From TrEMBL:
The entry's keywords: Oxidoreductase
Domain Gfo/Idh/MocA-like oxidoreductase N-terminal: 14-112
Entry protein name: Dehydrogenase
One Pfam family it belongs to: GFO_IDH_MocA
Keyword Protease: no
Source superkingdom: Bacteria
Source organism of the structure: Sinorhizobium kostiense
Occurrences of domain GFO/IDH/MocA-like oxidoreductase (ranges): 124-244
Length: 330
């Protein structure tokens, strides 16, 4: 993922003009050296000791691109060294750790935010704008399907709750952003289907209750071969006056009721407008740009940890429900 972050910065003129990489830290320093050479990063400190490199380079920002189990120690070290920290997701492996990072960011007066890059893809921004415009009335339900046969290798194939913790959080966060309301409770069933190449939890089905009488359902699998959905999931968003379908790529279809008679009422198609600000639709680059702008202006970044902890809470509540077989309050 560090390669993905550096690629996003290198491809964006505005980010390249304001960000200078001064250190790369890895448990395997050779990997950091290889990355520095690949991106032609000169005069960079390389090491395996985070505290030592932070002390040597005195950076303004720490990009935290580590496995989830290392998140608490890495973010804490960055904040205590006076860095603003932008983390990979999930922001923590427990709510206790998440609350500690929120507390520490407040205590140190530094910003901590999370790369929820799916918020910054064009489709999600278009849907949010479309819903806010009231084209299909008040939301009543959001339904998402995610089915991909993904062969990662590496740590993901050894993780517990791999789909919920490492991937579903993207969809949960996007749904919360689109709905514009808070999660209340969840019932979830998790499984590791026959033939799965993951150690645990490669598939899950969840029903979330959101405020304002809104239902959000999620069906997902990371070991579903033969008919992949988009990485952004397939969406059906239902309002009191109509429905929006999104395939997770370029295809939007929206219709609303246009008649008042008959068993099935007449429908009319509705246009789903493009986002107002294309600068907010560049995935990782947009999250990083939003974070840098927040540091410079003093405003709150969109994916700040004190808000993103609500998306983490959805994931952890789903995991608890899967373990207990019970509805869990969030």
């Amino acid at each position: 993922m560090a390669r993905g972050w550096l690629k996003a910065i290198a491809a964006d003129h505005d980010l390249r003009s304001v960000i200078r990489i001064v250190g790369l830290v890895d448990v395997n320093p050779d990997a950091a050296s290889t990355l520095a050479a690949e991106f032609d990063i000169a005069d960079v400190a390389i090491g395996s000791d985070l505290a030592a490199v932070l002390a040597q380079t005195q950076p303004d920002i720490l990009f935290d691109v580590v496995v989830p189990s290392a998140r608490l120690d890495v973010v804490s070290a960055g904040l205590r060294h006076g860095c603003h920290v932008l983390s990979e997701k999930p922001m923590a492996t427990s709510l206790e750790d998440g609350r500690e990072l929120v507390r520490l960011a407040t205590e140190t007066g530094r910003l901590h935010a999370v790369v929820q890059n799916r918020r910054f893809v064009p489709g999600v921004r278009r849907i949010r704008r479309f819903i806010e415009g009231g084209a299909i009335g008040d939301l009543t339900a959001i339904h998402c399907d995610f089915f991909i046969g993904a062969h990662f290798g590496g740590f993901r194939e050894e993780m517990e709750h791999v789909l919920l913790l490492d991937m579903a959080i993207h969809t949960f966060d996007a749904a919360r952003f689109i709905a514009g309301t808070r999660p209340i409770a969840v019932y979830c069933r998790e499984e590791n289907p026959r033939g799965s190449w993951y150690a645990h939890g490669a598939a899950a089905t969840a029903i979330f209750e959101l405020a304002d009488d809104l239902t959000f359902t999620y069906r997902g699998s990371w070991c579903a071969e033969g008919a992949n959905t988009s990485w952004e999931s397939e969406w059906r968003i239902i309002g009191t006056r109509g429905t929006l379908l999104w395939d997770g790529a370029e295809n939007f279809r929206a219709k609303r009721v246009a008649g008042t008679e008959g068993f099935l009422r007449d429908l009319e198609p509705i246009e789903v407008p493009e986002p107002d600000d294309l600068r907010q639709t560049q995935g990782h680059a947009s999250v990083i740009a939003d974070f840098v702008a927040a540091i410079r202006t003093g405003r709150h970044p969109e994916t700040a940890s004190d808000d993103n902890i609500n998306s983490l809470a959805m994931v952890l509540a789903a995991i608890e429900s899967a373990r207990s077989g019970q509805r869990v309050k969030i």
